[in-house]
């Protein structure tokens, strides 16, 4: 039987953040061993805040080290707005995390969307895909980019990235990055990594907290129902880990695992 996604549930966000930090560092160290860099993509929503809590914490040991100069940060999805707009996922990550890094510390590269192409979401997606091509080698030589880690959120309807339930974009099998003009969650115009790219990552971590998530968590883990989050679970098995608080999985019958690396 294929191994299933790991569900790690914590009593508090503090406990979740500590485990998330250890997990991200282990993905970083594996990425550095593999190819000398750490390529990670992050979502918007509540994720940047929890991630910042995890990553800005003081190190607890000599191996608990974030090597920012080796990080290449991408966006799992981004809204078609200027980088300084309140809806920008880059802007959110910057405000929550990047601006709070100690002086002199910075990721090697943060890949934002190209603000010159905001008027045309297809062009915006194509340019972001080109940025991936440049980082992950030529589109002809690699079928799909392999991120070391994707850090994703889960919407109350079961969406992840900007991949929404029942949307035709879920069937995209060629593009690495796709535009969406009719996102049910505002703002409507966005770009997103496609499902094949999400499923191809070395590791995928979802972060979902709060009682508002428990109904959708039940559906994702008990029925699946073709929800985007469930498609990621089913397509990635044990490469996929969920970091949740107890409130988000109250009443969900799916085995929790004690967190370990
Ligand atoms: O830009 C976005 O809209 C996000 O990337 C989106 O996919 C988000 O991660 C989920 O909607 C969960 O958001 P919450 O964590 O705020 O529930």
Automatic annotation (TrEMBL):
One of its GO terms (molecular function) is 6-phosphogluconolactonase activity. Coiled coil: none annotated. It catalyses: 6-phospho-D-glucono-1,5-lactone + H2O = 6-phospho-D-gluconate + H(+). Pfam families: Glucosamine_iso. The keyword Transport does not apply. Keywords: Hydrolase. One of its GO terms (biological process) is pentose-phosphate shunt. Signal peptide: none annotated. The keyword ATP-binding does not apply. Its EC number is 3.1.1.31. It comes from the Eukaryota. InterPro entries: 6-phosphogluconolactonase_DevB, 6PGL, Glc/Gal-6P_isomerase, NagB/RpiA_transferase-like. Residues 13-238 form the Glucosamine/galactosamine-6-phosphate isomerase domain. Pathway: Carbohydrate degradation; pentose phosphate pathway; D-ribulose 5-phosphate from D-glucose 6-phosphate (oxidative stage): step 2/3. Gene3D superfamilies: 3.40.50.1360. PANTHER family: 6-PHOSPHOGLUCONOLACTONASE (PTHR11054). Belongs to the glucosamine/galactosamine-6-phosphate isomerase family. 6-phosphogluconolactonase subfamily. Hydrolysis of 6-phosphogluconolactone to 6-phosphogluconate. This is 6-phosphogluconolactonase. The lineage of its organism: Eukaryota, Fungi, Dikarya, Ascomycota, Pezizomycotina.
């Amino acid at each position: 039987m294929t191994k299933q996604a790991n569900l790690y549930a914590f009593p508090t966000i503090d406990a979740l953040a500590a485990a998330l930090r250890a997990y991200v560092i282990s993905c970083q160290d594996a990425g550095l061993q593999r190819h000398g860099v750490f390529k990670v993509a992050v979502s918007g929503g509540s994720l940047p805040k929890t991630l910042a809590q995890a990553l800005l914490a003081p190190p607890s040991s000599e191996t608990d080290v974030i090597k920012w100069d080796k990080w290449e940060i991408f966006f799992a999805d981004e809204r078609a707005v200027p980088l300084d707009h309140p809806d920008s996922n880059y802007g959110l990550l910057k405000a929550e995390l990047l601006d709070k890094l100690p002086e002199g510390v910075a990721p090697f590269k943060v890949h934002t969307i190209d603000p010159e192409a905001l008027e045309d979401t297809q062009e915006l997606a194509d340019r972001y895909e080109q940025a991936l091509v440049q980082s992950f080698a030529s589109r002809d030589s690699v079928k799909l980019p392999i991120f070391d880690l994707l850090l994703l959120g889960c919407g109350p309807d079961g969406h992840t990235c900007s991949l929404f339930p029942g949307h035709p974009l879920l069937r995209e099998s060629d593009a690495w990055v796709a535009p969406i003009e009719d996102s049910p969650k505002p703002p409507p115009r966005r770009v997103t990594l496609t499902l094949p790219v999400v499923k191809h990552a070395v590791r995928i971590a979802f972060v979902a907290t709060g009682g508002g998530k428990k109904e959708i968590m039940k559906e994702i883990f008990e029925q699946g129902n073709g929800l985007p989050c469930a498609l990621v679970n089913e397509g990635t098995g044990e490469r996929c880990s969920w970091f949740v608080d107890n409130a988000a999985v109250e009443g969900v019958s799916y085995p929790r695992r004690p967190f370990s690396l």
